[in-house]
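A reminder from the course coordinator: this example appears on the midterm review sheet, so study it carefully.

Given structure:
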């Protein structure tokens, strides 16, 4: 039985959801493959989603979060630089520990989305390594901290050791990798059809169901948010359970739900931050998007510009999101829906299958 070690970023849900999609495909294609998954932030989510005896999910921190200023969803630059320096100082101990671990476990292939240190681990162990992402951290930090961080060159050097980088749609330039291939959207497949989900939750065909995650504490929404929502009689909003006020128009997403793609797939529209997870799941289901960007975060700029270029949604300012100003934009949803007919194969083909063809030579 061959053993693969998969390092998943601790930042956000997008890395975890797409890693789950690929791991499920790997398990289906290679019954004798053993997979070790290492992550910290999404550890519980990964463990609940990968209930297979061939998978071991372990809690280890691979990288860091990027602190935001909640009221404006902008990056806190000083706090980010402090965390980055602290993380960089742990690299030597991290690499030494993981080299020993991979040797003891007989790891023959390393995947990373998209922590840089595992590529140095693979180099020391003498096994191939594959990067899977739509961005690399060197590009993110170079944009956030121009001239202020000495860590970027070490990240770039680590990424250059990768055997291959599979670059996903909605990507920024990833020039550190010596060998790369572009692949299609990597996303968890919808497992419950739209109509079945709507019937299960008691929605009629006349209900306009919107998936909305404002990414702020409930008390930071506009004070009359819920009162204004009550006037929109045909709209039903799926929101994280933290926002589940006693309101007839809000349907809470269960806190232990692991398959959010099924909820997104039944909606008419999605209102979200420019994160890969929710955006990719909406694109897979041809659901129009209303998004906002975190100022200074270049991945968000790439995602938002692609949504606009494809004509499948629009970007608003965050202050418009925290109020109900975006409700007025829903009238454009039919037009955005039509544009999905011409998005191109990189947004409709199965990224998991494409990545498996590239991994085959490293697994067999």
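Designed residues:
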């Amino acid at each position: 039985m061959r053993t693969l070690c998969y390092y998943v970023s601790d930042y956000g849900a997008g890395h975890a959801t797409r890693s789950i999609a690929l791991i499920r495909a790997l398990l289906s294609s290679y019954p004798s493959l053993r997979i070790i998954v290492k992550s910290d932030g999404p550890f519980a989510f990964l463990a609940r989603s990968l209930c297979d005896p061939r998978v071991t999910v372990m809690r280890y921190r691979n990288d860091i979060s990027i602190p935001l200023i909640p009221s404006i969803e902008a990056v806190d630059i000083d706090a980010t630089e402090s965390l980055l320096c602290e993380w960089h100082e742990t690299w030597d101990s991290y690499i030494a520990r993981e080299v020993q671990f991979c040797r003891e476990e007989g790891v023959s292939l390393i995947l990373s989305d998209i922590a840089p240190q595992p590529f140095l681990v693979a180099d020391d162990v003498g096994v191939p390594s594959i990067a899977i992402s739509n961005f690399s951290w060197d590009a993110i930090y170079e944009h956030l901290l121009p001239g202020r961080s000495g860590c970027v060159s070490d990240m770039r050097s680590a990424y250059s050791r990768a055997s291959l980088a599979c670059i996903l749609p909605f990507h920024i330039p990833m020039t550190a990798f010596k060998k790369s291939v572009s692949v299609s959207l990597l996303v968890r497949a919808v497992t419950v059809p739209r109509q079945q989900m709507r019937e299960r939750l008691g929605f009629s065909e006349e209900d306009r169901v919107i998936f909305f995650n404002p990414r702020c504490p409930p008390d930071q929404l506009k004070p009359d948010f819920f009162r204004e929502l009550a006037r929109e009689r045909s709209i039903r909003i799926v929101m994280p359970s933290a926002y589940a006020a006693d309101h007839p128009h809000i349907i809470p997403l269960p806190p232990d739900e692991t398959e959010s793609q099924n909820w997104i797939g039944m909606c008419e529209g999605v209102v979200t931050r420019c994160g890969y997870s929710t955006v990719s799941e909406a694109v897979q289901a041809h659901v129009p998007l209303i998004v906002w960007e975190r100022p200074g975060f270049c991945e968000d700029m790439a995602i938002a510009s692609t949504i606009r270029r494809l004509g499948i949604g629009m970007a608003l300012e965050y202050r418009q999101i925290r109020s109900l100003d975006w409700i007025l934009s829903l009238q454009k949803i039919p037009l955005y829906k039509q544009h999905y007919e011409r998005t191109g194969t990189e947004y409709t083909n199965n990224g998991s299958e494409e990545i498996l063809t590239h991994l085959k030579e490293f697994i067999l």
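The chain has two domains: 3-184+349-363, 194-347. The first strand starts at residue 3 and ends at 8.
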